[in-house]
Please model this.
Amino acid sequence: MVQTMMVVLSAWAFLLVLGMPIYASMILSAILFVAAADLPMNIIPQKIAQSGNSFPLIAAPLFILMGNIMNAAGVTDRIFGFSAACVGWVRGGLAHANIVASVIFAGMTGSAVADAGGVGSLEIRAMKAEGYDAETAAAITAASATIGPIIPPSLPMVIYGVSADVSIGGLFLAGIIPGLLMALALSGMVVMIAKRRGLPQSKFAGISVIWLSYKRAHWALMTPVMLFGGMMAGIMTPTEASAVASAYALFLGLFVYRELTLKDIPEIVIKTMETIGVVLPLVMAASAMAWCLSISRIPQLIIDLFSASISSPLLYILIVNVTLLVVGCFIESIAAMLIFVPILVPIAHHMGIDPIQFGLIFILNLMIGTITPPVGVVLFITSKLADVSLDSMSRAILPWILPLLIVLAAISLWPPLTTYLPSLFLR
Model:
């Protein structure tokens, strides 16, 4: 079966080169493998249906729905207003506010794209109005958006947890410290360049303004507290939390802030379904392809190869980091995750690497890929919002990738940064 699978993988690569959608190429390749191996053809629809019939996977569309409701309900300007009032008075204050707002927004949507497309447009507009050049405003916004999928809740963590059979609650807990470290690292970069580039500085508005901005944003700021508190108290699972969060976001938009009307809901649902229509077919097609890889024993052969040539888990993590950083430059993050999880995760498990630590390493690598050319989706979004060319944006983002790589190195070298909180709360 190994030779058959190698032929199938070659055919899959050829289909991708021809421009066929990834999910379609996966399904066709899986069908080709089953036919060549003389296995029952009904296995493929069974595997596809089995992967879709997953309770944890329900969290993905619900978190997407929540993010879309939050964007439409006027939550983003309240969050950014509060962040700007708190830190906007220091040199480079709006850059710091951009990062703080991304941390808060991360606790609501769990998506880099939602962060960049939602609060990002407001951040870039405010920074340009205060005198920041468009490239710097867009680069900071893009870099801070990568925090979204690391701090819980997180759409990539849900996808990874389902694909790799890892506790989603554990992944959520593991993301808190790395996410905060990313914010600190990016803020440190702002401090380093603030004087050198002459970044703008505003006057301190006063405690009363901070208090008023907090009151304006209070109910929005309670969203991550409610979600995290509910999950940690055992009141709700991550999947149930996604449903509660969507209902809470709808309540805020309709009855608290009243910036959402019933007429807006169909458009929000359609937008959500469009996103789900991209994500879920990938997940289900990847499940069929992963089964074909497993039955052909390709992962086992790779494990044997690595076991014979690499004995150090740290060296393996280094190889994975380099591989995924390169992959992230060319393949969209969810697609890359579904392709490489069945290959890389079993090897990590065989080498004794903590599955939660490996999950955070995996996801952070691919999130860095979202801001690197040529396929960085967040890079495209922020360059469009700031009205700058992709070439200029690609040069402007380079210094901001360095702090993220430092955090990646830290969680790779010191497992407690990702394993301490899960071990503390999930004993």
